[in-house]
Structures are given as structure tokens and as C-alpha cells.
Amino acid sequence: MIDKNKGKKDFTNFLREHGQRLTNERSVVLNRILSCTGHFDPDSLYLQIRQTGLKVSRASVYRTLNLLHKSGFISIVRKTEKGTIYECVYGIKHHDHMHCNECGKVIEFYSEELEKLQEKICEKQGFKGQSHTLEIRGYCAKCKKNMK
Amino acid sequence: MIDKNKGKKDFTNFLREHGQRLTNERSVVLNRILSCTGHFDPDSLYLQIRQTGLKVSRASVYRTLNLLHKSGFISIVRKTEKGTIYECVYGIKHHDHMHCNECGKVIEFYSEELEKLQEKICEKQGFKGQSHTLEIRGYCAKCKKNMK
DNA sequence: TTGTTATTGAGACTCATTCTCAATTAATAT
DNA sequence: ATATTAATTGAGAATGAGTCTCAATAACAA
Ligand SMILES: [Mn+2]
Ligand SMILES: [Mn+2]
Ligand SMILES: [Zn+2]
Ligand SMILES: [Zn+2]
After folding, report:
1. What is the pTM (predicted TM-score) of this model?
2. d(CA A31, CA A19)
């Protein structure tokens, strides 16, 4: 389970280093994304927050998401026609995604071998890799079967 | 070099199969993207076309780019705040990208080993991979040096 | 506390992309 | 070739995710 107190402390430190403050609004958004298990989009997040009775404006949600992205708490899963999809990566093992073109299902996977190979490829180019996004698109097992 | 005639034929076939027609406008856009060596965005493409004296509306450029994407002539490199960046992939060997966070340089690379490994990983999940996008972000050799 | 400065929120604004619909054009039938 | 039918185009309006403005407010340091 994710340690929210540590998260709060880490985020505060990030903000401090940039001359910024931990406000109530930022704290609310932070808490919400630390509770998110899956992928999410800004507006759903906003609505979820409002449903709990807390008041944070859309502008602040967007602003905070940008901060959380810069500080590495969340990462962008993909950008669709309808907006950006994020996921919380704080205290969560890195993984990549497969995306079913038919039903939209998302499969998360991790391969040590794949990570190592990417590092090797970066070295060959003199490139210092920091992060990466790999999305494999195609058909999940179920949809694959239904196609015949 | 890319065979534009074959390209035209292939695109026409795609359109026919969908009850659509190869118009002058679509032909102009197709020709332009087949001449593109690097990455491009819709509006630059539109302006390039206008500069050659040809008349194609923005709406048609966008519409045709969508068709070219669906038919596999172009692929989306990345979506930025400022819009979508495409590249022509017709008759061009697949590759992935490294992106320098500092200077914006883009390195294209290809690794047979990486492709094979991805296939293996897909099989393990019962997933039928069709396409993928891998973007590695970090620092290019030059920027890496300038950081110290 | 007090002073200083960052932050917030409502709504205006941006701008890439899509939509509308009357006029036009490609493909097909006669 | 000409008429028929349906797809396509373009100008500009519309959409909508995300950003910006700025007066009011809250965080923080002393
Ligand atoms: Mn994920
Ligand atoms: Mn490329
Ligand atoms: Zn599926
Ligand atoms: Zn660089």
C-alpha cells in the first residue's frame, strides 16, 4: 500500500525546492491520485473530488496535475482525442501497456529483459535515457478469438 | 526512394474498399506526405501545400490526414500541447524514437532484438500485437555533456 | 501577528480539430 | 456524352481540453 504521509512529505519537498507551497487544494488532489488504482483523466478526477464534498476548481486540478507530473508522481499514459490519461506511479513499479483496438482493454506488463535491452540501445547512441513509454496496440486474447 | 505511383494506387484501393474516392485534394496531400522526409504537423503541411500554389482547405488536410492514418500511410509520432506530430511510414522501415528533453533532438533507431522481444512478450499475454510506439526520453550525447 | 508572495477560482480565452451545409465533383448508369 | 447519385469540398462556425487573468485569499517566515 502507498504511504500517503510519505507522499505528502515528498511532494512538499518538491514544492519547496521550487519556491512553492503545499496548499489544501494541492493536498486534496495529491490524496485523490494516491488512491487511484487505475488510469484516470483530469475531469473524472475533478468530479470525484467534488463528490466527496471537497471544493477544488478545475483550474487547480489541472495546475496540480502538471505539478504532479513534473515531480514524477504521475505519468501520462496516453493522449487521446478526448484528453490526457494519467496514472499514479508514485511507489508503483514501472510497467508498459498493451492496448486492445477492439474493446479498449489495457494490459499492464513489465519485462526486466526489455528494460535492460532499452538501456543497451541507449548506450549505443550515447543517449541517457530517463523514462520511456511503450504502447503496444493490437487485439487482446478475447477479441482475437471473436474475430474469426 | 518512395514510389508515388504505387502509393497513389494503394491509397485509392484503400479508399475504394471504404466506398470513398480519390479526389484532387486527397491526391495533393498524399503527394506531399510521401515527399516528407521527417516529422511534420498538420498546419505546416497545409502551409507547404499552399506555398506550392495548390488549394486545399485546412479541413481537407485534417480529413485526409485521418484517412492516411487509418490506411497506415502515416503514424502519430507524438501528441504535444500544440498538436499532433506525424511521420510518413509508407515504404519506410519501422523505427522508434529517443527524444532529448533538453534540445528536443529526435533520434530514430531500430532494433531487431527489441522487436522480437516485444513479440515474445505479447505471446505470453495472448495478445496479438499489430503496432507499437516506443518513446525514450532523456538527454542526447551533446546535452548530456553540457550538463556537468 | 505582520508582511510578503504564492495560490485560488470564475470565467474568459486559446487554438487544434471537427462540424455544418450548400455548392461541387467523382463515379456510375443510361 | 449526359443524367443520376452519392461522396467531397471549403468557409466559417462550433467544440472542448487546457491555460490564463486578476482580484481575493491563504501559506509561510520572521
Ligand atoms: Mn498503467
Ligand atoms: Mn521517425
Ligand atoms: Zn479486446
Ligand atoms: Zn539534446
Report:
1. 0.94
2. 21
